[in-house]
Every structure is written in structure tokens, then in C-alpha cells.
Amino acid sequence: MQITDVRVRKITKEGKMKAVVSITLDDEFVVHDIKVIEGEKGLFIAMPSKKATDGEYRDIAHPINSSTRENLQKVILESYEKALEEPEEAI
Asked: Running along the chain, 91 residues long, what does each successive block of 10 average in pLDDT?
């Protein structure tokens, strides 16, 4: 499985969420709403989730093993860092 595209939407308002990302896998499958979060130990990703009836949030899509999660996080955070270097688009 290869990540063939990463799209980063930077969040400009203050807060822990820094960006929302969409990734394309093998040019065939897209996962939207992956969040880049600033935590106590640095940046990390949070997979798309929805609120369950018990009030807890559950991932809608997520990697099965830690090596896949680490690879996703590495590629997404590298893309986020590159996006930070790009000038803001005028609206």
C-alpha cells in the first residue's frame, strides 16, 4: 500500500488541531478528515472518528498495526511541515 497523494488544509485559528488531511492510497482509495494535533510530546495524527451513543469517539478508519500507523504518521507530518513553508493563499 502506497500513499500516492496527501492534501493538507492548515488550521489558522488557535488550538491543538493544526491541520486536516486527506490521503489517497494506491491512487484508488481516499481517507478524509485525518487530523494533525499538537500534543504534549509533539505532533501526532488522529484518524477520522465519530461520536458514539455513549459519548466516546470511535475511529471510522484506522491502521491495523503500529508499523502502518507509524508510516502514515511520518508521511502526513512530513507533508504538513512542507505545507507550513508554503505561503498563505490569498482569498
From this structure: 94 92 96 96 95 93 94 96 80 53
pTM: 0.86
Question: Rounded to the nearest 5°, which phi and psi values hold at 7?
Answer: -120, 125
**DSSP per-residue letters across 22-88:** EEEETTTEEEEEEEEEEETTEEEEE--EEE-TTS-EEESS--SSHHHHHHHHHHHHHHHHHHHHSPP
Domain 1-83 indexed as CATH 3.30.1120.40? yes
Q: Where are the domains of the chain?
A: 1-83
Cα–Cα distance, 44 to 73 (Å, whole number): 7
